[in-house]
Amino acid sequence: MMNMLPLATAVWKFLGNLLVFLELFVEVNTFNSSAFTSCPEACICTADLLSCARQELHQVPVILPPTATTLDLSHNAITHLHDRWLATLPHLHTLRISHNQIHDLSRQVFHSAISLVHLDMSSNHLHAVKKHYFENLVNLEELLLYHNEIVEVDGNAFVKLTSLQKVYLSWNYITQFPFRAIQGFKHTHLRTLDLSTNNLSSIPVEEIAALPVYIKNGLYLHNNPVKCECSLHQMLQEWKNRGFSSVQDFTEQHTCKAYSNVPRSIVNTFTYKYFENCSTSLKELSILKMTCKVGQSLVIHCNTSFHGDNTTIYRWISPKHELFMYPEPSDKTRKVLKNGSLKITKADRFHSGIYVCVAISELQKINATHEVNITVQYPKLVDSFNTGITTLLGCVVGLLLVLIYLYLTPCRCSKCFKKPAGPPQDCSAQSSILSTTPPATDGPNRKISTNKHVVFLEPIKEAQNGKVRLAVGEDFPDIKSPKLLHLKLDSESISSVFSDLPIMTYEAEEQSPADG
């Protein structure tokens, strides 16, 4: 009996060691199995990417690696998504599950996917966008739902998605969209809302007119069978004039139905002649206009009714859709002040455009927008330009006066000669004053005669070889038998003013009976 005791002790030790070995073996196999099955067999795993695309999957793999930030399940045959199926992927950033056969989503499908930013569920068979579909995706920025079978969109489907930037709902069967819901929540980041190629038969122009301008710029409504109405045409024409991308990029695709009962009566909204008869009674948006010169500073105030509310947050959106906030840093020339105003330092031409201020009141749970159209112009050199023109005109006028004075004859003295005899008078620039002092005789037999005549010779009419030809008897028909013709240039008897014309005097000697 005593010999059996050591043997039993040895057996128990052996069995104990064997049991420990078996436990270790099982744990090692379990670890290797879990490590091997962490990446599904039909998928490709990299550092943070899990791709299971085009594998003809009918359901999502059960085990998914927790390190994945991008999951691609597109181009499969998945029909259903389980509740909380993304709970094991806490770092998931992008989910692509397009081109599948999903008809509906339960309330808890995206319950744990709070880090999801990009969701692509395009090309599925969703019939609606219900309120509970995406309400847990509070950080979602891009939602792709195009090419589904969506007919209806719930008014509260996007209420909690405050970070939403782009929503694609094109190529569906949507008959109406709750535009009022967009006005009631804080979607200050929303830049794209694509509703093109749907079944919208009418567009609520008044509801859309109340939307902020940054949403209108990315609100795509083309390729819808809407009825041709003047209000719609005027709204789209205004968007086109303001350069909105939603109209500028798809001008030819903006169509409407001329006759609601005729399916093929589709015409272009911008070329339809019926719209030429539309009145301009549609009220245009009143936008404050401000001008500024290049290099100057400008402060734009956000005129809303929230200035007394200390919980108000102000955001400014530039013409290029840049976002400026306080106290977040802005660029070197634009800065949001504490009171919500936007200051532009050293303004330049690229600062021109429509700026939108979005004031969000945390206390009142509402928001308001204010639009300002800024025009930056180069300074005009008006004063220096006018001074130069005045000086030039003065020089030209002075030169013309000098030329007139030198080369033009103000008065013809032939007219002055025909005036009746009287006291000597000035005759413009060629007037002469005749003296009664008799001239000196040239010879002893010369008789003094009181019968004197003055003749003004015109050198223009009588010229020969550059010299003045003296007048002869034929030039004076009223003089009988002239005997002597003298040219007198006597400064003592005749004074000429501004005249270089020679004055010629002649004497007619009467014949006496004694001389025969």
Question: What does the model show?
Answer:
This protein has eight helices and 28 strands. The radius of gyration is 53 Å and the shape is elongated. A nine-stranded mixed β-sheet has the order 1-2-3-4-5-7-9-10-11, with no helix packed on it. A five-stranded mixed β-sheet has the order 14-21-20-16-17, with no helix packed on it. The relative contact order is 0.05. With 516 residues, it is α/β, with parallel strands linked by helices. A hairpin with a 4-residue loop joins strand 20 and strand 21.
List the main descriptive attributes of the protein structure presented here:
single chain, 516 residues, alpha/beta, disordered C terminus
Task: Give a brief rundown of this model.
The chain is of the alpha/beta class and 516 residues long. It is built from eight helices and 28 strands.
Net shape: elongated
Calculate Rg over CA atoms: 53 Å
**Helical stretch tally:** 8
Helix content: 10-25%
pLDDT < 50 runs, ≥5 residues: 26-37, 281-285, 423-516
Spell out the blueprint of helices and strands.
Elements: H1 4-37, E1 44-45, E2 49-51, E3 70-72, E4 94-96, E5 118-120, E6 128-129, E7 142-144, E8 152-153, E9 166-168, H2 179-183, E10 192-194, H3 205-209, H4 213-216, E11 219-220, H5 230-241, H6 245-248, E12 255-257, E13 266-268, E14 288-293, E15 298-300, E16 312-317, E17 323-325, E18 334-336, E19 342-344, E20 353-361, E21 366-377, H7 382-407, H8 413-417, E22 432-434, E23 452-456, E24 463-464, E25 467-468, E26 484-487, E27 494-496, E28 503-507
